[in-house]
Amino acid sequence: MLPFVFVDESKLGPLHPYGIMCALGFFAWDWAVMRQATRRGLDRADFRALTVWLLVVGVLFAWIVDGVFYHPPGHSVASSLSSLQGFSSTGGVVGATVGAYAWRHIFVGRVDGKLRVMRRATPEPMMPVADVIVSTWPLGWAIGRLGCAIIHDHPGVTVPKGTLASLFAVAWPRDALDGVHHVLGPIHVVTGGSDARFDLGLLEAVVLGAIALGFSRTWKRGLRPGRYVAVGSIVYGVARFALDFLRMHEGPHSDLRHAGLTFAQYFSLAIIALGVGVTLWMRGQPRDGAELPREAAETAS
User: Residue 173 has what DSSP assignment?
Assistant: First the structure.
């Protein structure tokens, strides 16, 4: 089994371990996505405006979706929203998609030295932009999910110790006195916890890390438009759909089910369908000139 690792928040002052990891994830993604945007010949200023759309609308939807779809019956949606706490990663993706669609039609930037907000004469093509975003998104999201793993806010089901499944589980302590604590500054490593429990934040971070590593090895290759969207949607969608079956079904940390599935699982089915649709679309596109010329990729590198 894996050790139970957490951070003593009292030793971080005003900082929070989850917030730290989310910030690191955002800056890592921002570095990677702007680098890829430059490599693909996209306008940096306009693409920077897109990242603001993604962030602002994504956070808004993450907050709304969590309040509406992730709490048990009888829970006040209004109280969840007014608390300004709770964020859904799937809601963030939905919001980012809405933000990207708005950016496609609305230009926000400087023209002749003045800030302008205007409707674009011609909507921006989305597939090249979507590929840049999806090719870099797993990097930031994997780091953010490590933040979830540190605060253990997505506990899964327990499994018998000594089984093959327990190799991927965490030795979860039942209370503050359970297990042996090894203290390394603010970091606590607890071994010998009584339960073998899946940590869904950690498992998803591993999946996202593998996707990020695979994508990063192709950043300079200039793949056909749609390849990242198709592969990323199908691989992540299948993985997330399967992982959510391992979430707790009862207790305060369980996710609300809708007809037996979590909101994230319905979201996963939707993005799997998107990936299949993009794959079919790619088959109907001409191959000639579809890929970034090798000279351009080498120059951008």
Answer: -
Q: How many CB atoms lie within 10 A of CB 7?
A: 20
Amino acid making up residue 106 = I
DSSP letters for 218-269: TTTS-PPTTHHHHHHHHHHHHHHHHHGGGB-SSSTTPPPPBTTB-HHHHHHH
| CA-wise closest residue to 206 among 251, 160, 141, 271 | 141
pTM for the model: 0.85
Q: Is 31 helix (H, G, I), strand (E, B) or coil?
A: helix
Q: With H, G, I as helix, E, B as strand and everything else as coil, classify residue 138.
A: helix
Contact 181, 190 (CB under 8 A): yes
Given this model, what pLDDT does residue 253 score?
66
Kindly tell me the burial class for residue 144, based on how many C-beta atoms sit within 10 Å of its own C-beta (0-12, 13-18, 19 or more): buried
**pLDDT band of 257, cuts 50, 70, 90:** confident
Q: How confident is the model at residue 292 (pLDDT cuts 50, 70, 90)?
A: very low
Residues 6+ apart with CB under 8 A from 171: 1, 2, 3, 4, 179, 190, 191, 192, 193, 194, 195, 196
Write phi, then psi, for 199 (nearest 5 degrees): -110, 105
Q: What is the pLDDT of the chain when averaged over all its residues? A: 87
The answer to whether the beta carbons of residues 200 and 246 sit under 8 Å apart is: yes
Query: Can you count the helices (H) and strands (E) in the chain?
Result: 9, 8
Please identify which residue in the block is written with the tokens 């205007």.
Answer: 118
